[in-house]
Design brief:
This protein is an all-alpha fold. The chain has a domain of 54 residues. It has seven helices and no strands. It is elongated, with a radius of gyration of 27 Å.
């Protein structure tokens, strides 16, 4: 009888402790919901440049970009060996090639609806739902990529791959 009582107390303690969870982990939230600055929104500027002649400077244009303002798109094009001056924005060659078979204008709402349906079908067992335990990782486990298995598969095919850190134990 004392053994049954201690098992019951242990079970009740575990249920009470599980009920203290606060829901989904904050690591899965992609948007900043906190008050205060967003450290990822700060972009460094280019170094200031001194013109050869102040008289040769163009007239200031309100609202025009500054020469030292960051331009990540042009920087990426230059880093990949392209010419940022020839880039034509959203109608550029890469976007045209990627959308050559057409695009769906409503892709975001369609994906959101499909994901909601998937999560509804994979919303956990009864105790997980009762105590608000997240089943996010379990639901998407089959869709996750095993990076080390993929690395080995590519190496067996002869694809040159960069070195990877050893798996955590």
């Amino acid at each position: 009888m004392p053994r049954l009582r201690s098992s019951a107390i242990l079970g009740a303690s575990m249920l009470a402790l599980a009920a203290c969870s606060t829901g989904t982990p904050q690591l899965m939230n992609l948007r900043n919901t906190e008050e205060g600055p967003d450290e990822f929104a700060v972009l460094p500027t280019e170094p200031l440049q001194m013109p050869e002649s102040f008289a040769s400077l163009p007239e200031p244009t309100p609202g025009a970009p500054n020469r030292v303002d960051p331009n990540p798109e042009a920087d990426a094009i230059a880093a990949l060996g392209g010419n940022p001056g020839r880039a034509s924005g959203a109608s550029g060659g890469l976007v045209s090639y990627a959308t050559r078979f057409g695009v769906s204008g409503d892709i975001r709402p369609v994906l959101a609806a499909e994901d909601e349906e998937f999560r509804r079908r994979n919303n956990g067992r009864i105790l997980e739902r009762m105590f608000g335990t997240t089943v996010y990782f379990e639901a998407y486990r089959r869709q996750a990529l095993d990076r080390y298995a993929e690395l080995e598969r590519l190496r067996r095919m002869g694809v040159r791959t960069p070195a990877a850190p050893p798996p955590a134990e």
